[in-house]
Amino acid sequence: MRLTFLTALATLLADQILKWVVVVGLNLRETLQLDVWPPFLTLTMAWNRGVNFGLFADDSAALRWVLIALPVAVSAWVWRWVRHEGARPLLQVAAGFLIGGALGNAIDRVIWGAVADFLNVSCCGFHNPWAFNVADIAI
């Protein structure tokens, strides 16, 4: 369980600190785009009010709170499941990534009203239209 907790905590902290640095520190919420290593890595501000790829995006307060409660509930269930299973280290780490990522995006919805996505990776002539964040990678 300690491994799950430490992985979740490290994931959550990395996600929230990087979001704060990029969104507030680099002021990406106003500049909207910053070329880091074009065309491979661009910071592109995107506020995701829906689920993956902005699906079911809606500005309703009810959906916002559902999308806060659901990952918290799933994280609690995963935590309980790992605790009762006495899981192997790899499963504990995987569960920690899932929990940390889910809680990171839930915190965004509480603070910002949407998930802050900003990483955009393109390669080899393919332009990726979507942005994501550290929590998404962990999940």
Write the layout of secondary structure elements.
Layout: H1 2-25, H2 28-31, E1 33-37, E2 41-48, H3 61-85, H4 89-111, E3 115-121, H5 134-138
Antiparallel strand pairs: 1-2, 2-3
Explain what this protein looks like in three dimensions.
This protein is α+β, with helices and mostly antiparallel strands and 139 residues long. The protein has five helices and three strands. The chain is globular and about 45 Å long. The protein has one domain. A hairpin with a 3-residue loop joins strand 1 and strand 2. The relative contact order is 0.22. Strands 1-2-3 form a three-stranded antiparallel β-sheet.
- The helix/strand order is HHEEHHEH
Secondary structure class reads alpha+beta
What is the mean predicted local confidence, pLDDT? 92
Percent of residues in helices comes to: 55-70%
The biggest beta sheet reads: 3 strands, antiparallel
Terminal CA distance: 18 Å
The number of distinct β-strands equals 3
Shape: globular
Share of residues in strands: 5-15%
| Low-confidence parts | none
Number of helices: 5
Strand order within the widest beta sheet: 1-2-3
